[in-house]
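Please produce the structure of this protein holding nicotinamide-adenine-dinucleotide.
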Amino acid sequence: MNLKGKTALVTGSTSGIGLGIAMSLARQGATLVLNGFGDVDGAKARVAALGVPVHYHGADMSRPAEIEAMMTFAAEAAGGVDILVNNAGIQHVANVEDFPVERWDAIIAINLSSAFHTSRLAIPAMRARNWGRIVNIASAHGLVASAAKSAYVAAKHGIVGLTKASALELATTGVTVNAICPGWVLTPLVQKQIDARAARDGLSGDEARVALLGEKQPSLQFTTPEQLGELAVFLCSEAAANVRGVAWAVDGGWTAQ
Ligand code: NAD
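Below is the modeled complex.
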């Protein structure tokens, strides 16, 4: 229970990777502040079942004023944010010339700018305590590109850049900033892309899943939210106190090619 007494805020933690990371941090004893849409009660119940205090704030990560309200809530209700996991994210697939402007703006706001806002608001107290962990959930698409994902690739390359710059600003403090770059993880965000591929190519769900993996991920295995959660726990540990500004791929070999 090496995170007992720490509070972790995980954005977009009602589902998928964010929920997996929240549960791993809770298993180490951290108090959790959850965020996100959808099955809020289900997510709260799963984390609370691990025996830690659980709070929730429904801020929309595309809205800076709501992010500020969430950070104030975390300070008042949970004693501040020791561990910040910037995870909320959305996807839209289209070529640049067809990309809806509103989707571009939403992806940049949710997948990139929200991490700037939470970080700028969390860092002063982390500096004052001389301890903090910021873990940014980037992607293999923070390191390499795929066609038809311009906004996502731009946002994920951007969050890797934000990670490096803020890690350098904090390099002489007890606050570290790192990014995790998952390959394919079977979450609702990816299931939508599998469904679209099945419909486009006349494939079954299983065939579309195998085709999706085969195209990019040499292991032919999905990364799991649990594996990403355990990496986040490591980055929060004292053993990782001098890991700074890395973009750590967990992608079955995707970016080794
Ligand atoms: P998901 O759709 O399962 O979960 C996304 C979470 O973000 C949900 O909790 C959702 O409610 C929340 N969210 C969405 N828009 C929001 C908003 N405006 N405000 C607040 N919360 C919002 O997706 P996931 O696959 O778990 O993705 C989580 C993160 O991991 C994203 O940043 C994604 O880009 C990244 N990622 C996913 C994969 C993958 O293969 N699934 C791979 C690499 C990186």
